[in-house]
């Protein structure tokens, strides 16, 4: 029998074989099973008996090949039961030849849904398999993968009847229509022209964003509306994101592809494992990976544990997180746009800095939790000022909404994708620095004079130099220019160095 085992988001085809020999009755599982898989012995025994089948009173050895690959979870139950019954002569093996069988068994013989069906089915297709049998609760999710015939079962009894030619398998439920697009709209944000423009540049180029300002100024409102101006995920990205959510067990029951960029906003009390991934055995994805191809928002960023914040530094550069555990290494994609929001001090008086009760040392310690190496990876760093009564109540015209901004962002991303497609990069934020500093993309010396002076004085790092160049390309893309001008570079430097001004001033 064939099944699929997951290591991270990578699936591997597993062959389940059963040997029944004379001796004391026992069930032995081999092939590096974890605790949940060891317990399959009792689940399978109860399911077989309660499905009206005869349990073979012999020594049973179940081997999972390749034996060197760690196996975890309960997705092997149904394949183990089928292999065991076939080995006992209760079932013919031919009907399941070349079929991948997935599912967890309940003690009553019911087949329960499992996590990670989508990446499992995708792995089966990559291995050349064209037929899969999955739990009924996962059938709609499995049909998302092209090139495979999906059939479903709700019980071990139904699978046995199908193999014997007495019944048929279930068809997957029909696909559901796409839900209407909704969610927070950028039109809800009053004033904050600088914040809105920074958000648009960040969306156009896939840049990280940090906002510093008093409570109630609109930092959270802006961050929550970033996904509304991002383009929908393409097929490849949607499969990646949906697979991660399936592994984590947070995929909606409707089984649709995740088409909208995900938004993750963990509470500042979140642990290191909850943020970047972890857990016993083989690590599970955290908020960082669940935000892949979307937005990771850290509100009240200085309140997060220092170890959790520093753990973000390497994934922000590489777009992947590698979790090393005793049972093996697990790698998850983590190409996110990170948005940080922070108050200027611990007291965070909404009336403004002039009413702050914190000492200068307390303010430095508070913001010092956002270390230099972490902030150096944040492309856009701006200050959000509190709204005046005139801005809040007497706006001359309704603010521009997310649909209008999304059109400009989509056009800018299309221009960037066409420019960088030979290198395989999607957005400006992914382009390596050396590529930007070599012809034909190297900017004229007069356009980067300010950056080179800052680099020589030590107020700008080499990483910061490259990030400003990427920002300049995003600004040019939004304005429909083929390459940045000196004005674009200066504006990018202002967005990067936290001293940006209103673009319209």
TrEMBL record:
Gene3D superfamilies according to UniProt: 3.30.230.10, P-loop containing nucleotide triphosphate hydrolases
SMART domains assigned: AAA
UniProt xrefs under InterPro entries: AAA+_ATPase (IPR003593), CHLI-like (IPR045006), Mg_chelat-rel (IPR004482), Mg_chelat-rel_C (IPR025158), Mg_chelatse_chII-like_cat_dom (IPR000523), P-loop_NTPase (IPR027417), Ribosomal_Su5_D2-typ_SF (IPR020568), Ribsml_uS5_D2-typ_fold_subgr (IPR014721)
Domain AAA+ ATPase intervals: 205-388
GO molecular function, one term: ATP binding
Family affiliation: Belongs to the Mg-chelatase subunits D/I family. ComM subfamily.
Listed PANTHER family: COMPETENCE PROTEIN COMM, MAGNESIUM-CHELATASE SUBUNIT CHLI
Name recorded for this polypeptide: AAA+ ATPase domain-containing protein
Gene source species: Actinoplanes friuliensis DSM 7358
